[in-house]
Every structure is written in structure tokens, then in C-alpha cells.
Amino acid sequence: MTEPPDIAPPHDWTPVEQGLWRAFRLGELYDLRTGIPERDDPAADRFWGPDRTVRAETVARLLLDGPPAASGRVSCVKLSGAQISGQLNLSGGTVVPYVELHDCRFEQQVLLAECSFTTLRMVRCAIPRLEAARLHTSGDLHLPQCTIEGGVRLTDAHIGTDLLLNQITLRKDRHGRALAADGLSVAQDVEAELMEATGEISLRSARIGGRLSLRGSRLRNPEGRYALNAARVTVEHTLYLSSGGVRPFSSDGGVRLDDGRFGNGVIIHRARFRLAEGQQLSLRRVQTPELRITLDQPPTGTVSLAAARVGNLTDNRTCWPGTGGMDLTGFTYGSLTPEGSFPLRARIGWLAAATPEYSPEPYEQLSAALRAGGEDSDAREVQLAKQRRRRETLPVAGKLWGFLQDITVGYGYRPGRAAIWMALLWAIGAVYFQVHGAPRPVDSGAFPNWNAPLFALDLLLPVINLGQDNAWRLSGSAQWAAAFLTMLGWILATTVAAGASRLLRRG
User: Fold this and answer.
1) Does 2 have pLDDT greater than 60?
2) Does residue 483 register a pLDDT over 60?
3) pTM, two decimal places
4) Is 133 in contact with 112 (CB distance < 8 Å)?
5) What is the mean pLDDT of residues 456-461?
6) What are the residues whose beta carbons fall under 8 Å from the beta carbon of 503, sequence distance 6 or more?
7) Engineering a disulfide at 363: which of 169, 225, 386, 445 sits with its beta carbon 3.0 to 4.6 angstroms away?
């Protein structure tokens, strides 16, 4: 086979563009950088002359209808340090060559809507805006360290492998969005670590085959409703809203993960949430095997976990807002793994803060999680706290009866108290009747020997007859004492029965 004849670049192209033509055919890097960082920064306000300028139509022609590669080479556009004049419009096109742009400055927005690429890498580029709705790549889309003043649109885009947005700087568009990526599909990972974004990051209904990492990112949208809106997102591995090195993740604005599905976990560690009135850290109806919320300070707004379903919950004492700042309605979790000291008293206070109006479900859920972890005594304490909260909602008679059950048997969760009360009353009764001496018998012909302790016990025990209480005729204060002991015996027996019934129902 003979090689095709050499193809010359168009005669109306500038020398710089002709050099790019030859580099394209050879698959080589075409580098227009000066080597001086200040002059090579595309985001800096410095003049780049004709010796560093390539027209957008030149780049488009190479990518959409470029010359054949030189023999034994693979054609590609590898361009560094260039100013792209005009508007680069590849909408609807199919780009076969590999594309990698470093330190390039674009005069106008880049249009890639419904365009197909193999791999597209744009590193440290300055772009007024990137329009890439329904973009399709079979490989990666990389935009690390880029500055995009008018935001990025990736609505319904499909990325064949990874989406890399590390250290990107985004500003909002006219709709208030820094990244509009609703319906985005990424086969593997989305890395947006150390991002600086002003405006809403919208990932509604996005599907991510690996992890979604926003470690160390700073999101700002205090005037809008959300800084991160990822409702109905599906992440097959893990979502990271955590620190990146020494830099914590921070959000000045609401974070919405409602109805999200996470295959491995949601990690919210060393993050800061500054939420204005009406803004939330919202995880409603989230489903994940693990939720880790370990913050140095609580969010300034509210946290909602309503109807969320979590396998293991890891948290600490400092991550939750105070009274009225949480919604745990319908929140279920299988187990608890506190980080650091989180004593039971503080955990019960956590429930009280989450339920300004009494609701039994959060108490039942905490008790079940503690019981599943083998903490049966703590589970009973939570149930006791639930009954005490419930007592606050009852009328006066109910409150009095509840208070009586509490001090006698701890609503059935402290049955040992019944034995203590019984022993105490028995001792008091035995001493009293011993001091007062034997009363007159009812039947002078047949009566048992007087036994003050046995008499007191017969009065305290309802139903059971020990043959003492009906054999003696009492009068005066002894009659009142006997009536008092009998009444206390019935009350004690009733509260014990109520507590036992409650435990049996739970069993």
C-alpha cells in the first residue's frame, strides 16, 4: 500500500493555525505557552496577541472534518496556551479525534449541545459559558481547574466513564445555576473536589455509576433556595460531602438530597452548612446502607430526615441543631454507631429536640436500634422517656396516674421498684401493728395467733388470703392504717399489672 500524498493546510489560515494543522495530523501537542505563569494564566486580564490566537472555526474544522493522520500516527487536537477567537460551535456534531485543551482562553461561550466525543479534556481553561446539554462521550469529560463565568449546562448528558470537575470555578447563569446537570448519566465517578461554585448545583435525577465526591468544595447560593439540589439522584457507590485535606466542605445555602438512592453510603464529615431562613439540609426519603453525619458544629438551619431509611447511622453530639431544628418523622435506621461521647441522656435529649410535639415513632425507632445492638437496658430507658413525654400530653387525671406508675414501677420498665415499695410498706405496716398490739378477734371462739408482719402482708396482697386480715376487729387509727395499706396494695398491684401488660404487648 502507498501512503496518501501530503495534505497542505488551507492557504487562508494563519501561521499559528497551520502549525496546529500539522500537529493535528501528527497527533502532537501544539503548545503556545510562554513558560511564564502570569502570562499563561487564561483567567488573568492580559492581552494575548495573534501569535497565540486560533479561530474557533479552525478548531471546529479539525474536529469535525479534519485531514487524515500522517502515516503511523493518530490525529488529535492537543492545544495549550491558545486564545480561541469567535464561538466554538460543535452542536450536533460527531467528534472522532481525541481532544485535550490546556490553559486556553475562549472569547465566547462553547456550544457542545447534542455533540458526541470519545474523550474531551479541558484543563485550566477560561470559558464564558459551556452549553453541553445531551452531550455524549464514550470516554471521559474533564474540566479540572477551569474558570467558567456563565456556568455549565450538562442536562441529560451521558458520560461514558468519568466526569472530573476538580478545582473548577463556576459562576451562575441568568437562571441562578452554576451547574445545570439534571438527568446527567455518568457510568463511573463524578469528582468535583475543591470546587468553587456560586449559584445552584443541580443534579436532579442524575445517575452515577460510581461515587460522587465533593470533598473540600465550597458552594455558595445564599440568596437562592439550594446550593446543591440533588433530588432523586442515584449514586451506586458513595456520596462524599466531606473535607478535602485541611479544607472542609461548606455550603452557604440549602442542600437537597430528597429521594436519593446511595448504594454504599452518604458521608457528611467535617462539613459546614450555613443555612438561611427557609433553607434546609434535606435528606427526606433517602435510602442508604450507611449515613455518617459527623460535624464540628450544627447547621444553622434545619435538618430533615423524614421517612429516610438508613442501615447504620453514625453521628456525634455536635452535628444536630437544637429544638425545632430537626425532623425525624418516619426516620428508620437499623443500628447506631456514635462517634465520640454520646451518652444516653444526650441521645434522649436529641429526640426531645426533634419532637417539640410528642411523637412516639422516634422513641420506638431509637429503642429498636439499641435493642438490635444488645443495649437492652438503654432501650428500656428510651421507652421510659417516651412514656414521660406522653404523660405531658394527658389531662390531669392521666398525668396523676402516669406519675404514680412512674414512681412505683417505672411504667413497667423498672419492675424492681415494686418489690422495694412492697418491702417498705410491709415493714412500716408490721412495725405499726406490732407497736399497737393485738386487736380483738372477730370470733372469740376461733382465731389465729396474732402475727403483726403476717397481718400487714395480708392487707397489702390483694386477692390472696393469709387468714389474718378478716380475723381481727380493728378500731380507731388501726382501722385507718389497715384501709390505707389495703388501698396501697391494690394501687401497687394495678400499676404492676399495667407495666407487665405493656411489656407483654411489646413482646
Assistant:
1) no
2) yes
3) 0.82
4) no
5) 75
6) 412, 413
7) 386
Tell me how far apart the terminal alpha carbons of the chain are, to the nearest angstrom: 86
**Set of cell numbers at residue 483:** 384501709
Work out the pLDDT band at 187, boundaries 50, 70, 90: very high
DSSP 8-state assignment for residue 13: S
Contact 247, 271 (CB under 8 A): no
User: Looking at per-residue confidence, does 486 or 322 come out higher?
Assistant: 322
Beta bridge partners of 226: 254
Burial state string for 12-23 with b = 16 or more CB within 10 A and e = fewer than 16: ebeebbeebbbb
Distance, CA of 235 to CA of 260 (rounded, Å)? 8
CA 246 to chain centre: 21
Question: What whole-number distance in Å separates Cα of residue 231 and Cα of residue 203?
Answer: 7
Q: 390: burial class by Cβ within 10 Å (0-12, 13-18, 19+)?
A: middle
Cell numbers describing residue 442: 372477730
Contact 178, 197 (CB under 8 A): yes
Closest by CA position to 66, among listed 37, 95, 41, 34: 95
**Higher pLDDT, residue 454 or 171:** 171
Q: Classify residue 236 by burial, with Cβ atoms within 10 Å: 0-12, 13-18, 19+.
A: middle
- 3-state SS class at 275: coil
Give the side-chain half-sphere CA count within 13 A for 227: 28
Taking the C-alpha atoms of residue 85 and residue 103, their distance in angstroms, rounded to an integer, is 14
Q: Which three cell numbers stand for residue 413?
A: 420498665
- The DSSP string of 410-426 is GGGT-THHHHHHHHHHH
- Judge contact between 204 and 231, C-beta under 8 A: yes
Q: Quick one: which of 69, 39, 85 has its CA closest to 77?
A: 69
Task: Report the phi/psi class of residue 470: left, alpha or beta, with left for phi > 0 and alpha for psi in -120 to 50.
Answer: alpha
Q: What angle do CA 271, 272, 276 make, to 5 degrees?
A: 145
Question: Considering only CA atoms, which of 235, 142, 119 is closest in space to residue 184?
Answer: 235
The type of residue at 466 is L
| Alpha-carbon span 430 to 454, nearest angstrom | 8
60-70 burial, b at 16+ Cβ within 10 Å, e below that, comes to bbbbeebbebb
In this structure, the strands spanning 440-441 and 472-473 are antiparallel
DSSP-assigned letters across all residues of 32-77: ---S-HHHH-TTS-----GGGEEEHHHHHHHHHHPPPPPTT---EE
Res 469 pLDDT > 70 = no
Distances (CA, A) of 463 to 94, 458, 459, 467, 490: 92, 9, 10, 12, 9
